[in-house]
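Structure in, sequence out. Go:
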């Protein structure tokens, strides 16, 4: 599917974005491994989360969905009768591997062409150290075959900052003999830790270390999922680059391990206001108000900031392209192993729109230009590339055509409708 985006006069309105993707995956998983009933409100019905739901059903979970409410009755998981298809979702594959490896099951997990080219050694290694048998194509790629077992906890220092890898180890430890100590150099999103506590599990953090108890029994809960900050970031970004814009986003997830984008835009000269701050099931949320406040300026972004903005970097590249001066993003080599190589994809596509952007092994160097121009660009079948380029299209002269735009379904099926709703046309 092709999507046409035209330059807009301004962005304006009051919106809510759909439920958080990371929390939606995790609430399905925690509900399926806990005793009693779990009820999930504002569940994100996107392709990735539905992949997790289908895989869990094949693992014996009893899950019912009506509108955006999901009910799960806690049951013993069972060996799946068929292979598990994780679709495009790295979170599904890496988190579920932790559960599967710690059960006496024979399981094969696969996914689409993008997922089958993403590195899995990062979970194969710790799960193998814990005592599971995990095999990948060329030792690193899906399909994965897992022969699970009762595992032993480990002391493990994460070689890459990755919430998916951290969560895989936490989830496998819940069923293991003895606990695990996981060390992370820079803290990545901590939804798994928060949800484990909320489901009455035992976990604690001391500095860079996370201590997880083995052999845990969890209790089903009611979960209210806040709006996804990463989905909201496209609307925040659009408001900051389209003159005269102002936007209110309600019920927005504000977990501090996710909101590094707000620190970035503040340093670039953007302003925002947060109100109605609250915490529900261990996750902070609130209302964010944001207005256009003049041209932003280029900044330097370093490695230690990357985990908190990992999914927003393609969008930051767009914003930097029309800001004053130079922006340097480094230490972001993980972007090369996302749904696509996001460094290459954003450099190639933004150049077509007249941006002055240079590809680096671990990021970008971007010199702001006065104007972007509409062009035919491609999403590389990556939802975040498609949405970032759409934001660029809102300020580009003329028309921007996004090819393969249907991939927004992965995390945000309503994206284009909501964008139309807040766009005031010229
Ligand atoms: C996610 C973790 C991040 C992020 C992805 C979702 C999660 O991936 O990019 O969109 O839900 O744990 P990494 O763990 O590979 O950094």
């Amino acid at each position: 599917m092709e999507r046409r985006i035209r330059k807009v006069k301004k962005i304006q309105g009051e919106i809510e974005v759909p439920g958080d993707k990371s929390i939606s995956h995790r609430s399905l998983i925690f509900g399926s491994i806990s005793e009693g009933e779990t009820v999930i409100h504002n569940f994100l019905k996107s392709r990735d989360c539905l992949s997790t739901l289908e895989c869990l059903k094949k693992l014996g979970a009893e899950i019912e969905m009506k509108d955006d409410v999901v009910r799960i009755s806690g049951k013993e998981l069972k060996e799946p009768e068929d292979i598990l298809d994780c679709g495009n979702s790295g979170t599904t594959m890496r988190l579920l591997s932790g559960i599967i490896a710690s059960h006496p099951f024979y399981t094969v997990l696969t996914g689409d062409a993008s997922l089958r080219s993403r590195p899995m050694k990062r979970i194969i290694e710790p799960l193998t150290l814990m005592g599971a048998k995990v095999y990948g194509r060329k030792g690193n790629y899906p399909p994965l075959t897992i022969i699970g077992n009762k595992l032993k906890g480990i002391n493990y220092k994460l070689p890459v900052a990755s919430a998916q890898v951290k969560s895989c180890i936490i989830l496998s430890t819940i069923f293991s003999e003895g606990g695990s100590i996981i060390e992370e150099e820079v803290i990545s999103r901590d939804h798994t830790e928060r949800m484990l506590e909320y489901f009455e599990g035992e976990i604690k953090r001391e500095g860079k270390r996370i201590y997880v108890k083995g052999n845990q029994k969890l209790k089903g809960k009611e979960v209210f999922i806040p709006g996804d900050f990463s989905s909201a970031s496209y609307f925040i970004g659009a408001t900051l680059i389209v003159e005269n814009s102002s936007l209110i986003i309600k019920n927005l997830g504000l977990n501090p391990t996710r909101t590094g984008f707000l620190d970035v835009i503040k340093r670039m000269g953007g302003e925002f206001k947060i109100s109605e701050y609250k915490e529900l099931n261990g996750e902070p949320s609130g209302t964010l108000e944001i207005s256009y406040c003049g041209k932003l300026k280029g900044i330097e972004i370093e490695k230690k900031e990357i985990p908190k903005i990992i999914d927003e970097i393609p969008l930051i590249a767009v914003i930097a392209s029309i800001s004053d001066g130079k922006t340097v993003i480094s230490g972001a080599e993980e972007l090369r192993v996302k749904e696509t190589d996001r460094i290459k994809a954003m450099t190639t596509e933004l150049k077509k729109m007249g941006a002055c952007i240079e590809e680096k092994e671990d990021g970008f160097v971007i010199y702001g230009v006065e104007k972007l121009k509409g062009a035919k660009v491609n999403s590389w079948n990556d939802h975040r590339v498609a949405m970032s380029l759409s934001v660029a299209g809102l300020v580009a002269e003329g028309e921007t055509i996004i090819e393969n735009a249907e991939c927004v379904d992965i995390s945000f099926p309503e994206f284009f409708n909501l964008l139309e709703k807040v766009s005031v046309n010229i």
